[in-house]
Amino acid sequence: MHCRIDHEPLESDALRSAMIDRRAGGFVAFEGWVRDHNEGREVVALHYEVHERLAIKEGERVLTEALARFEILDAVCHHRSGDLALTEMAVWVGVTSRHRAAAFEACRYIIDEIKARLPIWKKEFYRDGDSGWVNCVGCAQGHAHHAHASRDGQSRG
Amino acid sequence: MHCRIDHEPLESDALRSAMIDRRAGGFVAFEGWVRDHNEGREVVALHYEVHERLAIKEGERVLTEALARFEILDAVCHHRSGDLALTEMAVWVGVTSRHRAAAFEACRYIIDEIKARLPIWKKEFYRDGDSGWVNCVGCAQGHAHHAHASRDGQSRG
Amino acid sequence: MKRVTAEYFAIFREQAGLGEERVESNAATVGELFAECAVRHGFADPRERCKVAINDELVAWETPFAEGDLVLFFPPVAGG
Amino acid sequence: MKRVTAEYFAIFREQAGLGEERVESNAATVGELFAECAVRHGFADPRERCKVAINDELVAWETPFAEGDLVLFFPPVAGG
After folding, report:
1. Which tens digits make up the pLDDT trace of B38-89?
2. Do at least 3 CB pairs under 8 Å connect B with A?
3. pLDDT at C21 over 60
4. CA 20 to 30 Å from D39, out of A47, B14, B49, B140?
5. Measured between alpha carbons, how far is A86 from A68 in angstroms, rounded to an integer?
6. Average confidence (pLDDT) over A91-119
7. At what angle do helices B52-69 and B100-117 cross, to 10 degrees?
8. What is this model's ipTM?
9. How do strand B37-38 and strand C57-59 relate by DSSP bridges?
């Protein structure tokens, strides 16, 4: 069981192979990929900001909950930090179990909790040059506009 | 969308990479692995027998149902035929979707239906030298004992 | 009396000691044909858990068969 | 009057124009401290959707803080 924050591209094959277990009959993996649209806007890239120590601590709390709640053998989560291009993998969750039902349920539980609880923020960069922090209100507008624009060369409008 | 029967080891990385799609935000994979126990008996190897034409036809029917029933982008299934060692992958199901919930539900649906409907039979070989077809009654006993024993050197005893 | 080819898989093939055979039968349906083959070869799996196909298409047990058909008898499946 | 270090992340960091600052406050809880910082920097996200940590441990908004604490303000998260 572990949760890690990665600064380089996630390699699902290596992550999967590290979980091979002679007792396991089922393996379920979830991968979150950077997609080209969100809420009707065309996305060209993403940036993830992560508070690493707390993200790992909270992520391992989620995995521990899953191990207690479902009949699984192991559970691992990796989340990217930094800049990601379209189709790159942002998050990987892998679960092994003797029987498949538990692996599906645990994997679903873990990704739902990871998304809701870990201190990770996602900034989307749009085709039109605009950008915005997902789930946040009033991104980079008003008096903070200039500080924001000078920081990363992007602004909402 | 496709279903295939493979005679060589399944490579999850190649299967996954073939599904990359700029529209996809979520990817869920299920892998069935050969585990070292079943119903209290120690398993050392498996043999899968497959009626390939009908398995592919029925598998693609399952995938078509999943594409109609869930909000997914694509679904693929590969199943092994032949002899498999412990921890080898027997089946791979991959599903892409815009949003993760549909990918989880479709992947679960597909593997459940694949296991229930495809003309595929699994023979387990046990540590004690015995063997048996999973889900079948009275394996290789009685008057068929000798034909069976001479065929593959295994018998249920 | 119709002549068909019966094909057996997995445990049925092992219990019959052969993968296929020419069969002559007065049975009206593939279900009745299966019952005859099951008695002859000692197939023990209940019909509800088995499947039957005619010429590579899965069919219901009540389906009639024709002279020259290829009838496939599938024991309980166990994919995955 | 207690002195603490407030640390801002993601949109809060951009709206404040800084990642951390020394703050002096008479607030009794981290929730009250957040309200002061939100007014000063124009944070628009409702508190229920945000989180707060003291010295790297997530805490409830009603938690008091001590002189010298590091108080982390997290805007709504969006992992995955």
Report:
1. 888 999 999 999 999 999 999 999 999 999 999 999 999 999 999 999 999 9
2. yes
3. yes
4. A47
5. 35
6. 97
7. 150
8. 0.89
9. unpaired
D and A touch per CB criterion (3+ pairs under 8 A): yes
Contacts of A79 in chain D (CB under 8 A): 79-80
Q: Which residues are C54's β-sheet partners?
A: C57, C71
Instruction: Please indicate if any CB of chain A lies within 8 Å of the CB of B138.
Output: no
| Mean predicted confidence (pLDDT) in A11-29 | 96
Hey, what amino acid is at D40? R
For the cut 70, the answer to whether the pLDDT of residue A152 exceeds it is: no
pLDDT tens digits along D8-64: 999 999 999 999 999 999 999 999 999 999 999 999 999 999 999 999 899 999 999
CA dihedral D16, D17, D20, D24 (to 10 degrees): -50
Subunits next to C (3 or more Cβ pairs <8 Å) are B
Q: Is the pLDDT of residue B105 over 80?
A: yes
Helix H or strand E segment including A26: strand A26-33
Higher pLDDT: A40 or B155? It is: A40
Residues 6+ apart with CB under 8 A from A150: none
Alpha-carbon distance B10 to D60, whole Å?
48
Number of B/C CB contacts below 8 angstroms equals 91
Question: What's the DSSP call for residue C56?
Answer: T
What's the token pair of residue B28? 């869920």
Please give the structure tokens belonging to residue A132.
């915005």
How far is B75 from B4, CA to CA, in rounded Å?
Answer: 12
Chains that touch D (3 or more CB pairs under 8 A): A
By Cβ distance, the residue of D49, D75, D79 closest to A133 is D75
Angle at B39 between CA B36 and CA B40, to 5 degrees: 70
Q: Which two tokens stand for residue B130?
A: 């015995």
Find the helix or strand (DSSP H, E) in which A89 lies. Answer: strand A89-97
Q: Mean pLDDT across chain A, nearest whole number?
A: 89
Summarised one tens digit per residue, pLDDT across range A128-147 is 999 999 988 865 443 333 33
User: What is the bridge-based pairing of β-strands A72-80 and A2-6?
Assistant: parallel
Q: Tell me: the pLDDT tens digits for B7-22?
A: 999 999 999 999 999 9
Q: Which residues of B touch A31 (CB under 8 A)?
A: 16, 26-29
Question: Using the beta-carbon criterion (under 8 Å), do D80 and A138 form an inter-chain contact?
Answer: no
Q: Do D45 and A122 touch (CB under 8 A)?
A: no
